[in-house]
Amino acid sequence: MTPTPYTDYLLTHLNDLPHYSSFTKKRLISLVGKRVIDLIRHLPTHYSTRTFLAALKASTSKEAVMVTVTIDCHQRGKPYKILAHDEHGDRLEIIYFNARAPYLQKLFPTGEKRAVSGKLEKYFTHHQMIHPDWVGSPAQAQFFGSVEPVYPLTEGLTAPTLRRIIAESLKVKSKLEEWIPPHILDDKQWPSWSEAIYTVHMPGSKLERKKIALCKERLAFDELFAHQIGLLILKSQAQKQALSPLLEPLSFYEQALQHIPFTLTNAQMRTLNEIIQDFKSGHRMIRLLQGDVGSGKTIVAFLAMAALLTAQKQSALLAPTEILARQHYSNLKPLADQIGVRIGLLIGATTLKQKTALKEALAQGEISILIGTHAILEDDVTFKDLGFVIIDEQHRFGVMQRRALFEKGATTHILIMTATPIPRTLVMSAYGDLDVSRLDEKPAHRQFVRTSSVSSNKIQDIINRLKAAINDGEKAYWVCPLIETSDTLDLAAATIRFESLKGILGTQVALIHGQMKAQDRDTIFEQFKNGAIRCLVSTTVIEVGVDVKDATIMIIEHAERFGLAQLHQLRGRVGRGEKHSSCLLIFSHPLSPIAEERLSIMKETNDGFLIAEKDLQLRGSGEVLGTKQSGQITFKNVEIGAHDHLISFAHETAQNILAQQPTPRLSEAYQQLFLLYDKPHLLPQEMTDGKGQAPITA
Question: What is the DSSP letter of 481?
Answer without folding.
Answer: P
